[in-house]
């Protein structure tokens, strides 16, 4: 599940944004003042998108953006009642990826969020071929290309493979896998991931002890290559 942090001090706006993004399938963490957000970002920047109001109690959104950029390239969308060209340029120069003026159209916000987190691209990916198998992400069906024999994978296995396919060729850390697949409210261990990887190797690899798709990167995590 893709994670979005919303930093917005206006309760009515925050509630509307949170509700609609959750309906779209995102996990939302909402902070309602700049000081709280600043302390939070010192510990956690593992998000697919951060939505920042510019005018916040305590630390403003521009300064928060600069703080985030010192550590992370996570996409940042500014929301602000200050919508002049000068204000937008200031936001973008501080490290923001997009700037939406208040009041905004909710559908436009959702579309901008989709673009920034790449959700449209992910949703268009319906099938993938790994070795001798074709996997359908929507039906969870796994079909052997030679025998047409079908089986099903679990929801967690599907989510794990989808993450790897989206990040093909990149090293994905165990912490990131735990956060994105299991979420912050569950408490699996890194051994949980290892067991899932072992099972995927048994399914897809001709020789599970010498994998060509699901690679272990010692001390870090895993890398998928098609």
Quick overview of this protein structure:
The chain is an alpha/beta fold and 226 residues long. The chain has helices at residues 11-23, 34-43, 61-69, 85-93, 106-117, 119-124, 155-166, 174-182, 190-204, and strands at residues 3-7, 27-31, 49-53, 76-80, 98-101, 127-130, 133-136, 141-144, 150-152, 171-173, 214-217, 221-224.
What does this protein look like?
The protein has 226 residues and is of the alpha/beta class. The protein has two domains: 117 residues, Rossmann fold, CATH 3.40.50.2300; 100 residues, Orthogonal Bundle (Arc Repressor Mutant, subunit A). The protein is built from nine helices and twelve strands. The chain has a five-stranded parallel sheet, sandwiched between helices. A four-stranded antiparallel sheet has the order 6-7-8-9, with no helix packed on it. Strand 6 and strand 7 form a beta hairpin. Helix 2 runs parallel beside helix 3 and helix 7 packs across helix 8.
Topology:
Blueprint: E1 3-7, H1 11-23, E2 27-31, H2 34-43, E3 49-53, H3 61-69, E4 76-80, H4 85-93, E5 98-101, H5 106-117, H6 119-124, E6 127-130, E7 133-136, E8 141-144, E9 150-152, H7 155-166, E10 171-173, H8 174-182, H9 190-204, E11 214-217, E12 221-224
Parallel strand pairs: 1-2, 1-3, 3-4, 4-5
Antiparallel strand pairs: 6-7, 7-8, 8-9, 10-12, 11-12
Helix pairs in contact: 2-3, 7-8
Largest beta sheet: what is the strand line-up?
2-1-3-4-5
Count helical runs: 9
Helix-and-strand structural type? alpha/beta
In CATH, the homologous superfamily of the largest domain goes by the name: Response regulator
Low-confidence stretches: 119-124
Whole-number radius of gyration?
20 Å
Give the termini separation.
Answer: 22 Å
Overall residue-averaged pLDDT value: 88
Specify the overall morphology: elongated
Report the CATH C-level class of the largest domain. Answer: Alpha Beta
